[in-house]
């Protein structure tokens, strides 16, 4: 075998071993602390709720374990197992234009991957989420979401794929710069279009009707110097009992969105504090920084692909006999995560830093105690584990552990 084949297999095996070990650590640690509510929460969260969160975390970890193993098997089947080669050969028989063939191969692989992963998704929704009382999705709504998502992906993805393949073929040695500009522009377009055109395909959004809450939010926005096209309530309860809030859009299309489930669980003061935290991400330019980092990483990755696309060993080492541009793009996107997983802790650490900063911003513009009680309520209602394994949390979690985050908040209002 080619040395790069061995390198690919080694990274894949090491990644599986590490992620499996972390998964087992998480399960054992959460189970070991299942019967005692940690000190910061012992007065606010009943033992029964804590046990539910522990069991929910363990159940999701088991699904994650199967998802990880299935993903590795599918990846090997597509690459060294000859799956991509076989699908490519079938499309070549169509006699269509090379760009259409390339798009067909990539879309076929993505559809097959989605079909293989569908049973786990169904079990997660109608098994685990249902068992713990979170699922409100009906089978009909689940199927409708699948078809709407597929149709939307085809309407947006096919033109993007065709344009990408054209740039790869027609713009010379530095095609990757053109593709990077295309993908960056497309990403910004989606950010702008999502709140007005895409999200309403899946959920209903209505202006916030609570006059007192709306006035409180408007005063907060004025204090923070934030302009928005509106505050909306989303019917998240159609699909799940989980609560959340988020910003969406860019420029004049920016929206503040609350799940209806969140509004049911929190007081006005707590909602204001949660929103102040989200505003902190915007005012402290966390979102802009993440976009810049994402664009930079994308540029570097495409530059690497720009070199690999002309290397015959890149195809041969991954089981591909046809060194076409669409196959280079496909195997690069499939294989790249195998080599980038060691950077997961760095991304998680950077995200946790932003969460602490946004909490600090919130305590300057809203009630720190209200943010604390809001977070405790969200941990309780969403069955978030209060006792994650420290190493698992450091490797994966984009938010600080619950106990650590609450201690930081208490220090600010002590």
User: What is the percentage of strand-forming residues?
Assistant: under 5%
User: Overall pLDDT, averaged?
Assistant: 93
Figure out the total of helices.
16
Work out the helicity level.
Answer: over 70%
**Beta strand count:** 4
The strand order across the widest sheet is 1-2-4-3
Low-confidence stretches: none
Q: Tell me about the biggest sheet?
A: 4 strands, mixed
Order of H and E elements: HHHHHHEHEEEHHHHHHHHH
Shape: globular
- Judged by helices, strands and strand pairing, the structural class is mainly alpha
Description:
Strands 1-2-4-3 form a 4-stranded mixed β-sheet. The protein has a domain at 1-135 and 301-414. The protein has helices spanning 3-32, 47-78, 83-92, 98-131, 139-170, 175-198, 211-224, 260-265, 268-283, 286-308, 312-316, 325-340, 344-365, 368-381, 390-396, 402-413, and strands at 205-207, 231-234, 245-248, 255-259. It contains 16 helices and 4 strands. The chain is 72% helix and 4% strand. The relative contact order is 0.13. The mean pLDDT is 93. It is globular, with a radius of gyration of 23 Å. It has 414 residues and is mainly alpha-helical.
